[in-house]
Amino acid sequence: WNAEQKWALTGKDSKLGVIESPKIASSNLDLSGGLLYLKLSKGNNCFTRAITGHRAGAKSAEYDKPGIEGRAWNEDSMPERIKKFGFGQNRFFVVAKGALDAAGEWWFDSKNSELLFIPPGDIGGDPNQLDVTVKSRVAGFEAEDVSDIIIEGIEFRGCNLRLDECRRNVIRNCRFIYPSTPRIFPDGKTALEMQKNLRVNGEDNVLERLLIQWAVDGALEVEGSGNVIENCIVHDSNLHGRHPGPAISVRGRAERRREAAKNPNIIRRCTVYNVGGVGIYAQGNGPAIAEYNHVFNAGLYCVDISSLYVPVGKEMTGTVVHHNWLHDISGIGFRVDIQGRGITVHHNLAWNVTVGCKLQGYQLAAYNNTVLTHDASGGFIVVFEPDASADELAGWRVRNNVALAFFDRLSLRNDPRKATREFVTPLATVEGSIDHNVVVQAEDPSQLFVDPSVYDLRPKPAGPLAGKGVAIDSLATANPSTTPSIGALEPGTIPWQAGADWMNDKLPVPQSPSEATELAKRLRPASLPLVKHDRRYEDQ
User: Fold this and answer.
1) Cα distance between residue 348 and residue 489, in whole Å
2) I want to staple 339 with a disulfide (CB 3.0 to 4.6 A). Which of 33, 140, 142, 314 is the partner?
């Protein structure tokens, strides 16, 4: 086991039911009776299968395959995906009784009711002589239909907190270590039913200054309306890279199931990093506000991700995503995936990302965003819903943004326009609604920004961005008497900061995008360098 390299890759001779890899042979371990954790085809998910055949020294192992093909494993197991990506170069790892070979590893032998355990290196000694605590339940604190309580200053170790149908409660200054530890993910439906994450469900609850560490799947779920998540830190979550396990998930819901939530759920000034999949996930029936958050090193083990993600925006009118730092992402900076309506994204700063943003919907607004990708192929993507009316399309607003490229792209599925136009075309300028956007590749970046080499992305005074924007009626400006600039920052001012006002483990609180980038490099696992182009993002 190499702590800096969790996953091995399947070899070219792998097929459904068989993984082949030189890593298996070179380990010389007996993997029989173990569990295979496999990221199939594109790599959106991770599921488990029992190892049904292996001998020590062999380079291949057989696993239980019934039920994989189809929708049980979500999109990754669709026949067309398997045909496109094959069974080679899939990430996997195996846990087994015969694979115990490193400090800190353990295996529970259920047949003999024995815990096999190699103590951590700094402890050592005979495990039979050590005090070993065993997790006995998921929730350390569980309640239903409670109001006006305060939970403060508690460390939850190997357990979490679950509040259901609760109102006006405060959870403050608590630490959650390994808050959820699911062991198996048989298929998409079963895994969802088995989820027991840290969860708060209800109205007007406040979660502030929480530290949530090492959640195997999703770290924090909040559902309802008027809930606030503020000044929290979530790191090293979704350790298997499962798309359904974001670091922070909020779902709008009214007290009556069919009604829209009147008050938005708010995620404010949170820092999220080293995440296997999605950073912040906003969904449901009602608005959400994501403001001044700092997300970096997301998408470590999952492909189809965004650091800040609205999957379906049809019933999320009033949602606002603004003033977020989103960087060093193996994926998309921010995204409204489909059916967005009445959602506004403004003053977001995204850099070192595979794809800058994707906004798909009937009527969306994007103002003053700075989106810098590795190359122009993953710029600022707009997708007008194919069934949008003329009035809806006229309500789109894309103004004062700066990116390497602006694209008008068709929807991936069931878009009748594919027969009459190119799949991707440059985004056309429409005076008064889609205008005052600047393409970085058309200019020398050093002429646009103060110093892009150190991520000082303020507009250069007297440059093509400074004071060249247009005033947006719905957005307040620091100085109403001056014309706003293009992009997320203004020249000659101290850049706004995003994220929590504290950090865990005596880490520095980054004061600028430059310091944030250095922190991301320092904390990113060495075996997972930021990839500048990933072919699996070609169909996003």
Assistant:
1) 9
2) 314
Are the beta carbons of 508 and 502 closer than 8 angstroms? no
Looking at residue 151, its amino acid is I
Q: Which two tokens stand for residue 502?
A: 């504290």
Amino acid residing at 397? R
Which residues are CB-contacts of 115 (< 8 A; sequence separation ≥ 6)? 106, 107, 108, 109, 132, 134
Taking the C-alpha atoms of residue 358 and residue 74, their distance in angstroms, rounded to an integer, is 22
Query: Percent helix, strand and coil across the chain, each rounded to 5?
Result: 15, 35, 50
Structural domain contains residue 502: no
Same-domain check for residues 247 and 379: yes
Regarding whether 185 and 93 lie in a shared domain, the answer is no
Take residue 375 and report the two structure tokens written for it: 């190359």
Q: Give the domain extent around 57.
A: 8-99
φ/ψ of residue 106, rounded to 5: -150, 160
Asked whether residue 493 is domain-assigned, the answer is: no
The confidence score (pLDDT) of residue 413 equals 81
Q: How many CB atoms lie within 10 A of CB 293?
A: 28
Nearest Cα residue to 276 out of 229, 201, 314, 329: 329
Phi, psi of 147 (to 5 degrees): -140, 150
User: In this structure, are 88 and 237 located in the same domain?
Assistant: no
Which residues of the chain register pLDDT less than 50?
533, 535-540
Rounded to whole angstroms, the Cα distance separating 100 from 60 reads: 19
**pTM value surpassing 0.90:** yes
Which one of 425, 459, 493 terminates a domain?
Answer: 459
pLDDT in tens, 91-118: 899 999 999 988 888 898 888 888 998 8
Residues 22 and 94 in one domain: yes
